[in-house]
Amino acid sequence: MLPKPSPLPRHRTPRPAPRTATVLPALLLPALLLLAPLLLGGCSVDTSGFFSYPAQARGNRIDPDQLAQLVPGTSTRNDAAALLGSPTARATFDDNTWIYISELTKPVIGATNSVQDQQTVTLAFDQAGVLRRIDRKGMDDSVPVEVVSRTTPTPGNDVSFLQQLLGNVGRFNPGGPGGGLTQTPRSNY
Question: How far is CA 50 from CA 111, 114, 115, 144, in A?
Fold first, then answer.
């Protein structure tokens, strides 16, 4: 038998280095540039920019042109209702005073609203229903109200939440006062 020929030596060609080292930074930079405005949009201080909420009108906002059509001494309640709509409120003890209240608010952090503009229009009518006076009040006429944080004292014990929760443990008897199950008498009606 003839000897087996030796296999030819195999020469391996070196593999090229993976290109992920150069491709990853090349893809990462444009992705960060595209995502950065979206991520930083919540940090924006500018309230009139792209990421802010629009202002919301609340109440019955009166158009100055429509209000100018009402003339004291000649316009009536029906004219006012036809031009301005029904009032937001009427005076508590005088049905002849109509009050139109409106606010322009804008949402801010924490689901609260900041007041951008505030307007109150008061129409005073006489007993015959004829308009006598138009009063306009704006945000400059408003007066800040101080909220008092006091609480009204109540008689009794000062009981904590945990004491209220666990206070009746052991006092409850499902069987009634005798400890066992009691049967209620049936009524005949």
Answer: 19, 18, 20, 32
